[in-house]
Known about the structure:
Layout: E1 2-7, H1 13-27, E2 30-37, E3 43-49, H2 59-66, E4 73-76, E5 80-85, H3 91-96, H4 98-107
Parallel strand pairs: 1-2
Antiparallel strand pairs: 2-3, 3-5, 4-5
Amino acid sequence: MKVVATTVAGADAGALRNAVDQLKERLKTAVIVLASVEASGKVIIVAGVTADTTARVKAGELVGSIASAVGGKGGGRPDFAQAGGNDASGLDDALAGVVPFVRTRLIA
């Protein structure tokens, strides 16, 4: 399974959602988390999980678990979720939490 967790400079929520959809289609079996910081300092996190993976990894649970690092919260469907926060200094920690989260779901 591929895991992508990265920032996309200058992207708004719509661009992040589109990028997640395109990556899900291209990578086939994957967990994708893309994030950006708006000019206002607000953090946007978008997560997508391919359909064949949602039985083990749920996007809503994933963003919920990492959003606290940016002082926010989030949620969504098993295949797609979004979070926001106001603490951009925690973004690296949030993204660093993606792989451990996925690992715990795959081992269980």
